[in-house]
Amino acid sequence: MKRSGKIFAVASVFLFLVSSPVMANVVAVAAGIAPCVEEVVDLYVKAGGEPVELVKEACGPLARQIALGAPYELFLASEPRWPIWLKDKGLLTEVDTFATGQLTLWHVSSDPIDESQAETAIIAIPDPETTAYGNLAKQYLDKIGLWDRKMNEKRIILVGSAPQAVAAVKARTAEMAFIPLSMAIKAGGSYTSIPDMVIEHVGGLTAKADDGARKFWAFCRSENATPIGFL
């Protein structure tokens, strides 16, 4: 008998957590902002906080896993859409903004890049249905009249997350990628910020959150975490 993909995904998460040598607070984090959250975790632990276990995935799959009972205590999303969806279901509390993100057009070369190059380039984009920056990229390309045309010309490659978009460019499957500014800085190469394409990163606590998760969530929203800027 075949297991559904959703049930298998949640079961895999449980297996991963049970097999972990140390049971830390478990935080679900959007893959595109995970590198910055990792730095926040380092600051938190150095300040005396307990270890935090990050589970990284696109926002949509993580939200659905929470809805199915995955053992996450805190959800750090790169957009408001999925936290609000969970809040409306009564599955997320203390929902709040913890950072702001910026959409960029990035390529692996050190040559300067300009947003006008999006018109002809093959671009890797995270799935707009499940990711914040894919959704933002689609809004931008719709705004300048390129989304439908580039889709018809097969000049858009949809991938599961921002890290996968970076990987597609590095593998030369795509020439450029729309990714968060925080990831573009860490990926090297060159990037240009897309004007007015910013988004709030929103998080919240699940019913499984204990005191440790609550402390980390407070730290994420405090001035102690501001040195790790997302913009």
What does this protein look like?
- An eight-stranded mixed β-sheet has the order 2-1-3-8-4-7-5-6, with helices on both faces.
- The protein folds into two domains: 5-100 and 200-225, D-Maltodextrin-Binding Protein, domain 2 (3-Layer(aba) Sandwich), CATH 3.40.190.10; 101-199, Periplasmic binding protein-like II (D-Maltodextrin-Binding Protein, domain 2).
- Helices cover 39% and strands 26% of the residues.
- The chain is of the alpha/beta class.
- The chain has helices at residues 5-19, 34-46, 59-67, 81-88, 132-143, 147-152, 162-170, 181-187, 211-220; strands at 25-30, 52-57, 74-77, 93-107, 123-126, 156-159, 176-180, 190-205.
- The protein is globular and about 50 Å long.
- The protein has nine helices and eight strands.
- The N and C termini lie far apart (47 Å).
Name the CATH superfamily assignment of the largest domain: Periplasmic binding protein-like II
CATH architecture of the largest domain: 3-Layer(aba) Sandwich
Q: Give the rounded overall mean pLDDT.
A: 89
Number of strands: 8
Measured distance between first and last alpha carbons: 47 Å
Low-confidence residue ranges: 1-22
Main sheet: which strands, in order across? 2-1-3-8-4-7-5-6
Structural domain tally: 2
Percent helix: 25-40%
What is the global morphology?
globular
Helix/strand-derived category reads alpha/beta
Put simply, the count of helices is 9
What is the helix/strand order?
Answer: HEHEHEHEEHHEHEHEH
Taken as a percent bin, the fraction of beta residues is 25-35%
| Rg over CA atoms | 18 Å
CATH topology of the largest domain: D-Maltodextrin-Binding Protein, domain 2
Largest sheet descriptor? 8 strands, mixed
CATH class (first level) name of the largest domain = Alpha Beta
